[in-house]
Design brief:
single chain, 2 domains, Fic-like fold, Arc Repressor Mutant, subunit A
Length: about 375
């Protein structure tokens, strides 16, 4: 990687755009710190995937995705927390409605894209479909959702003339996106998959192929690639929280590749994120199992009412915020019975009322949500 050249600046008259070197070519990974981090990241990721086979991951997957959606959107400036991500639109304050919609669109895009992997390969078509859902009905909906841009964009600054970075021209996008696709599916290049997705993410953010939503789409691609390659059986690893906590380093490392051809530092940063996030994910799954066992002790003390409590808990592991009306519909009992059960779950610390209102109360599965907030 010592001879790596990121690309070159091309004079476009009043500004210079950056044309990246294509990915689909011979790579030699000869940096020992990168190789050491790759080994660690592989081990951590393998342990996370193995651990997920021993829990009912379908029960927890939507909370994982909601965590990713809130953190990825937070990088773009939204202010929705985990609890709010699970509320209905009518339960969100008007000043947060737009942020809430962006988080919901991210959740929908991830769910739909993962489902599409059964029918589509990791491809430009898949990426465009995910982007289309991501921008549907939100602030970028008028910026060609699902379509490669047809004009020049830029990053930072107020104009092309004072921009921090100007991606390649729109006429170069079809070839550059095809290059990513070919690179992703090359079978005889012997490039480790984690190195590949690190390079793909860098290249995608450098190309910036859409008018809006490039950051969220690029972060979503990481998980999609890992699932498409069978490295993860389910989408349970997300780097947005790592990128958010190291936001300036994230942007600096991406930019340094373009300005100094320093791909090694980017790879080390990315692989560190994989290892750290996978380790935290495994710890979280362990704590979820401990929480389930602890709650089961409390439920056993309810006797016959424990059946109703387990119905509520199965719902709460998937959507950890619940209304009384929803609880009534789930267990099909009288309001008095449901209120009594909720009161017990509040008393033992499973539920917490989050509205402070006398009517239309909402209850959060706080100990469960807190595990993901600490992830």
């Amino acid at each position: 990687m010592k001879n790596f050249k990121a690309g070159k600046y091309v004079n476009q008259g009043t500004y210079k755009s950056f044309r990246p070197t294509t990915l689909n070519r011979q790579w030699i990974v000869d940096d020992m710190p990168v190789i050491a981090l790759l080994s660690k990241a592989d081990r951590c990721l393998g342990r996370l995937d193995m651990y997920s086979e021993h829990v009912d991951i379908d029960l927890f997957i939507q909370t994982h995705i909601a965590k990713e959606a809130t953190q990825s959107s937070k990088i773009e400036g939204t202010e929705i927390n985990m609890e709010e991500a699970f509320l209905n639109e009518t339960e969100i304050s008007s000043e947060k409605r737009n942020d809430w919609e962006e988080v919901q669109s991210y959740i929908a895009a991830m769910n739909e894209a993962v489902n599409l992997l059964h029918a589509l390969p990791f491809s430009t078509r898949l990426i465009k479909q995910a982007h289309k859902i991501l921008l549907h009905g939100v602030r970028g909906q008028h910026k060609q959702p699902g379509e490669l841009r047809k004009s020049q964009n830029w990053i930072g600054g107020t104009t092309l003339g004072n921009a921090i970075f100007v991606p390649p021209t729109h006429t170069e996008l079809p070839d550059l996106m095809s290059d990513i696709e070919y690179f992703a599916h090359a079978q005889n290049d012997n490039i480790p998959d984690l190195i590949k997705i690190a390079l793909i993410h860098y290249q995608f953010e450098t190309i910036h192929p859409f008018l809006d939503g490039n950051g969220r789409t690029g972060r979503l691609l990481i998980t999609l690639y890992l699932v498409s390659r069978g490295i993860l059986k389910r989408p349970i690893l997300y780097l947005s929280d790592f990128f958010e906590r190291n936001r300036m380093l994230y942007y600096d490392h991406l930019m340094r590749v373009r300005t100094h051809d320093d791909i090694a530092e980017w790879l080390k940063f990315f692989l560190t994120g994989i290892a750290e996030t996978a380790q935290k994910g495994t710890t979280t799954l362990e704590k979820i199992l401990q929480l389930k066992q602890s709650i089961e002790i409390q439920i056993n003390m309810l006797g016959k009412r424990g059946v109703d409590a387990r119905i509520l808990l199965d719902y709460l592991y998937k959507k950890p915020v619940i209304s009384v009306a929803k609880a009534i519909s789930l267990i099909n009992k009288t309001p008095q019975t449901v209120y009594s059960l909720i009161s017990y779950l509040e008393k033992v610390g499973v539920l917490k009322e989050i509205t402070g209102a006398q009517r239309n109360r909402l209850y959060s599965f706080e100990p469960y949500i807190s595990l993901f907030e600490a992830l």
